[in-house]
Amino acid sequence: MVASFMGGIGTCIGSSNLALASASKTVSRHIGLAIGLILVALAFLPKAVAFVTLMLPLPVQGALQLYTAVFLFVGGIELATSRAPSNRTTFILGISICAGIAVLIMPGIAEHAPPDVKLVLSNGYLVTGIVAFVLNLIFRVGTGRTAECRFDDMQRPVADVISGFLESQGGQWQVRRDVLQRAISAAHEGAELVSASSGRRLYAISGRFDELNLDVELRHSGEPINLHSNLADSMRAAQDFVSGAGDEASLDAVMLNAGGSILRHLADDVSSAALDK
User: Which of 59, 129, 206, 241 could lock 246 by a disulfide, CB 3.0 to 4.6 Å apart?
Assistant: First the structure.
């Protein structure tokens, strides 16, 4: 926007750069800074850029465009399918693709449009991107960052309730599939820890997503579970139980320690604390 107001050349994210990053699987801030400095230097050498561009044979230019287009298409499909499915995603993709195809099949649609808008409406790729962007903003209206599900008077098993809740909310929040699966596994493990502990009852699960972090909270009655037990104490409890010197309390300690280790492995950060009454 600044470049256009100053009479310069408009700048944006290059689709060929995205395709190159997808093909090489190399994305780094250091690479971006280095290339940015090179582009700044080339901005003061327009004749050198034009000379290099003209010296590049047309077959090579066509091959490069085909190469980047293939990886751009595949990268777009991977991006669309890497998120948890939902009805919103289906409508966004379906309507935007249909709008772009309609412009390509019937180019006369934009004939009676104003001259300033005709350039945009006559390009199917631009129409697809604009429709997808607008629909994504519209469909996000009413989607809260925080959701909660209570286990009071539920006939279904707790594991099914947790899976259904996180899958439904993950689709609305557009969480990546791998992240959502880890969150579901961690929530299942946490629920089993609560159920295996005497004097505790699970009564609610809540989730929060802010595009960077997915936080899952399990609320239960009783005292907080010790999720950061000492490794020496865990080994001692396990040895006591195997040798027959331990009792049911030793078995509970072994199960809690094992479950806590699995939970710490699944989640990036785990904590347990009492809620303020």
Answer: 241
